[in-house]
Amino acid sequence: MVHKILFWSGFGLGVRFWQLGLEMRPLFTRETLWAYPVFAGVGGAFGYWLQGVEERQFRVLTDRRDILLEKRRRRAEREREGGAVKASEGALGTERQLLEESVLPTSTAVVPPGQPIDP
Prior knowledge:
Layout lengths: L1 H22 L11 H48 L4 H6 L2 H5 L20
């Protein structure tokens, strides 16, 4: 965490140097020294905020991964208890998905209306 804050603080200082360089002003004068800590502080605050964003994203991804793994585990249990799933059920989607026009099945195969789902 500290390395990101230090990096962005250094980036803020670099921005200040670049600004003064573009203006062709001296880099170190008594009147402008107060700006360096301001630029470093703003950069460090951005780095701190960015670290929090990254932690929240990792937390969301971890939670989502755990939910998906739990769903896979429950599906495997159901398949073991109830027997194997038919190929048409697993590949084409649920009966509701196949019969409704607004919800696409998970496969590219489409069953025309009126035709039975299982061949």
